[in-house]
Amino acid sequence: MSPKDFAELLPVHEGGVTLTHNDFNAYNQSVERFMDEDDHYDWESDEAKRLAIETAEVWTLQWYPESPISFHAIAAPTLHDLLRIANSERYK
User: Fold this and answer.
1) Are the beta carbons of 81 and 44 closer than 8 angstroms?
2) Would you give the end-to-end CA distance of the chain in angstroms?
3) Is 62 within the bounds of a domain?
4) How would you classify residue 42: left for phi > 0, otherwise alpha for psi between -120 and 50, otherwise beta?
5) DSSP-assigned beta bridge partners for residue 17
6) Domain tally for the chain?
7) Which domain holds residue 63?
8) What would the pLDDT profile of 31-54 be if each residue is shown by its tens digit?
């Protein structure tokens, strides 16, 4: 997959976009602690959170769809789920 192909998987954003994977590890945190203290992300469901804890996998995406003022921030246990959610009708 080329960088251009990957970029087309991201939601439309006029401002910036930030993708992270397991950022909690950079702070020596568990997934649970991340969710308790630093999690400002929307999750699709409690089941997604449970899976993230079980697998210790957290993908996050924050983007500014129209301007640098408002943004969306989501989290998911897999990159596939994260991109699916970001491109869902909820965020169009």
Assistant:
1) yes
2) 25
3) yes
4) beta
5) 63
6) 1
7) 11-91
8) 999 999 877 899 999 999 999 999
- Asked whether residue 4 is assigned to any structural domain, the reply reads no
Structure tokens, 16:
């910036």
The strands making up 72-76's β-sheet, listed across from edge to edge, are 17-21, 59-63, 72-76, 42-43
Rounded CA gap, 7 and 5, in Å?
5
Give the whole-number percent of the chain exceeding pLDDT 90: 66
pTM of the model: 0.88
50 sits in the region (left: phi over 0; alpha: psi -120 to 50; else beta) called alpha
Structure tokens at 81: 């789920």
Distance of alpha carbon 44 from alpha carbon 74, whole angstroms: 8
